[in-house]
Amino acid sequence: MLLTSGGTSSVRQRSRVIVSVASMILICFLADQTSALQGYYGTKIGDLSELHHGVSGSVYAVDARTLFLKNFNYDGEGPAAYFYVGNTRAPSNKGAHRLRDERGRAGVLRRYRNEDITLSLPEGKTLRDIRWFSVWCDDFSVNFGDVQIRNDLDFPRPTKIAGLSGVHDVSSDNIVIVDAQTLLVPNFSYDGEAPDAKFWVGRGPAPTSQGIRIPDENGKETPLRRYDKKTIVLTLPGDLTVFDIGHFGVWCEAFTVDFGHVRIPDQINVPPSLKMLGISPQRSRSP
């Protein structure tokens, strides 16, 4: 059937409307994720007791070896204050472990005003080994503020899910959700023969054309090349987190075909990403 000029104009107009609606859906989808990115710091341990020198703030478990202090305050006036952790019933420096500050320094603590900082436990120690965190003064053996750590604390940790399996030789070993914005895909394979294959995520249990493409391990959104059992690390774009999606896979945009996907569990307790903690990769926490 031949299209008249008016018919062609109508088709183009409908196409523009479809593109506009799709763009609005994508913008709304990403906007919904901002609060999750800004408000997730791991499992909350509790608030610091406000005993001396203006110490206050909330303490979170980022993972087994990392603490995050939200809105931390300390007036800096103590003569020899340090961050300490220990496994005694009450805070003390006897048998406890002194932590380096957020910059890796071992000196006396400076002044803090509503600051967000990340601290690493001593080598070989995890949250299972400690019962409290404290701002402690060595000179006068005084606790400026502390929080107790429960024995049954369910701290975040990387989560392993199923591997990929599908058409065009798409396959992988079990995928690891490293943190809220990072996926580790071991031994990923794909024959590279499709015209427009992309890494793909979205809401719901299975891929659709309303999903979002994920940059490859080099940060590119071009059609995927051939992979032969290559282990890759992928980062979700912008403010998108694993809490906002229901699946991950390989999708052909040109022909809207699912090449293979895996479900993302509804309830997962994984660490926040470095971006969520306000840390650049150059200042990343200890693994």
UniProtKB/TrEMBL annotation:
Iron found in the keyword field: no
UniProt KW keywords: Repeat
Entry-linked PROSITE patterns: DM13 (PS51549)
Domain (DM13): residue spans on this chain: 42-150, 158-265
InterPro entries on file: DM13_domain (IPR019545), Spindle_Org/Thrombomodulin (IPR052126)
Keyword Zinc among UniProt keywords: no
Pfam families named among the record's database cross-references: DM13
Protein name (record): DM13 domain-containing protein
Organism: Anopheles quadriannulatus (Mosquito)
